[in-house]
Amino acid sequence: MKRIVGYLTSLLLIASIITACTVNPVTGDRQFSLMSTEQELAIGQQHYVPSQQAQGGRYVVDPELTLYVNQVGQRLAEVSDRPELPYEFVVLNNDVPNAWALPGGKMAINRGLLIHLEDEAQLAAVLGHEIVHAAARHGATQQTRNVLLQAGMLAAGVAAVSQEWEYGALAVGALGVGATAWQARYSRSHELEADRYGVDYMVRTGYDPQGAVELQETFLKFSEGRNPNWLEGLFASHPPSRERMRLNQELADENPGGARNRDAYRRATAQLRRDQPAYERYQEALSAAEKGEYGKAMGLVEQAIEHQPRENLFWELQGRLFAQDEREKDAIAAFDRAIEANPEFFRPLVYRGVLHKRQGNARQAENDLTASQKLLPTQLASYHLGELALERGARDEAIQHFRMAASGGGELGAAAERQLQQLGANAG
Predict the structure, then answer these.
(1) Gap between the Cα atoms of 75 and 416, Å rounded
(2) HSE (side-chain half, CA atoms, 13 Å) at 387
(3) H helices within 206-241, ranges in order?
(4) Are 31 and 21 in contact (CB under 8 A)?
(5) What is the torsion angle, in degrees rounded to the nearest 10, for the CA atoms of residue 325, residue 327, residue 328 and residue 331?
(6) Cβ neighbours of residue 79 under 8 Å, at least 6 residues apart?
(7) Which of 171, 255, 269, 169 is nearest to 212 (CA)?
(8) How many Å apart are CA 309 and CA 321, to the nearest integer?
(9) How does pLDDT run across 45-100, given as a tens digit for each residue?
(10) pTM of the full predicted structure?
């Protein structure tokens, strides 16, 4: 009897595997995936905004740059093997050189990578590579193989953010728990596949595939130099190699010539390049704050603001430095400027909400914290919303917020658990 049950179990397992085998839309090969096309599209849509928020939000100083990147990406997507996908391309306000694709065609590239590219052909190499990952369903396949970086936490409730540094009562580390964002670690075969067909998409669109070779050369140079920004960015999910550069060169040799559009790229990135010194001061300010050199950090961020007063990250950092110095009114004014510059980024809303709560402005605090939660749910906002709900006598609402905060663990999670105990509720 046990043998029969085991045999039937094996048949069911084989049947499920056969059912889960799909055709790679790019290569035509069979591949194993438990995710349907509908699920693929839904997951991409669900994670797109949280992934952007967790990595700096959209770059808003020069909206024309995102329009330009989207135009280049859409031209490549039109010649892809899945042109029907709802492709989107955004530029993220992040210094780390990186680019990524979600299932279903939702993509992003950081300004930290754009500043290192030299022309449109190199941009097309980046975007073409990412389009292949989406078109070939690599993200769906990797999820099936359980090699995503805790991506499900975003859907579960409280999301995390990248930690720039921690200090004072407004520590970035208190903002969230779980995963930073959806990010697949692609296999070697997926990376080679994305290189190969990405070059094919470049050729179909009329770009010089030599741009893909130069891109790999740049990546190799930075990886060998062990630049930490590059190691934590593109290389984490797209490790470069001399093999990839060699194979790209072979493809370029087979398809010589094509558009480089250097002037168009230089025009599109002109604002970004003009502002690069300000972003360098910003990074220096972050480093100084990590070391506790708050006066130096303030001087550097003031230089950055003077250079580019429309950058929300600069005002946000100034606000956090004022908060560290217990200059709460000045901090709120700085967060006001950050939110004015980019009202669609969650972090300054959290900070301003906490400060308004300390000053007794309960209604404004709740408005800010609630607005931040709609962009990206966080542990810090959840806890303070719980306390504000208690002040209003909204017990059930407070329990809901404290449960979310408790799921983050750490000191704030423990505080939320104590609140739940006092309310006679459990953390589950």
Answers:
(1) 49
(2) 18
(3) 210-224, 228-232, 234-237
(4) yes
(5) -80
(6) 201, 204, 205
(7) 255
(8) 17
(9) 999 999 999 999 999 999 999 999 999 999 999 999 899 999 999 999 999 998 99
(10) 0.84
